Amino acid sequence: KHYWEICVENVQDWAVGVARYESVKGKGNRFAPDEGIWAVGATILGSYVAFTSRLTKLKLGTFPKILKVCLNLDAGHVSFYNAETMFEIFTFMMPHEPEVYPFFFTKDINNKIKLNH
């Protein structure tokens, strides 16, 4: 079991989660589990989404400033929480993956995603 926290306050157009190494080596990949990327994020329009095979729009009462990513390879899932309230945002079930890595992405040139701990 592993977890980390990501500060996304004031960042637009971002995605965070986990990915297989070979999934992020190339350019132009879709963010989706069938591409080896399990992630949630925010679009430039301010929508929060889970990057499922078809985007899943997330209805959040409060937009998170800090996300907690919880990876449990033994149980086969990765979950995302609002780190301040511990509200569960989304959980992906994952096939057995021997190696996945933290995944961070943003197109926002003015604000950066920051690893909180």
Describe this protein's structure.
It is a single chain. The chain is mainly beta. The chain is built from one helix and ten strands. A five-stranded antiparallel beta sheet has the order 8-7-6-1-10, with no helix packed on it. A five-stranded antiparallel beta sheet has the order 5-4-3-2-9. A hairpin with a 5-residue loop joins β7 and β8 (88-93).
Task: Give me a quick take on this structure.
The protein has one helix spanning 21-25, and strands at 2-7, 14-19, 37-42, 48-50, 56-58, 66-72, 77-82, 88-93, 101-106, 114-115. 27% of the residues are buried. With 117 residues, it is mostly beta strands.
Tell me the helix content.
under 10%
The percentage of residues in β strands lies in 35-45%
Query: How would you sum up the global shape?
Result: globular
Class by SSE composition: mainly beta
Low-confidence stretches: none
Number of strands: 10
Rg from alpha-carbon coordinates? 13 Å
Individual helix count: 1
Strand line-up of the largest beta sheet: 8-7-6-1-10
First-to-last CA distance: 15 Å
Provide the residue-averaged pLDDT. 87
Give the helices and strands, then pairings.
Elements: E1 2-7, E2 14-19, H1 21-25, E3 37-42, E4 48-50, E5 56-58, E6 66-72, E7 77-82, E8 88-93, E9 101-106, E10 114-115
Antiparallel strand pairs: 1-6, 1-10, 2-3, 2-9, 3-4, 4-5, 6-7, 7-8
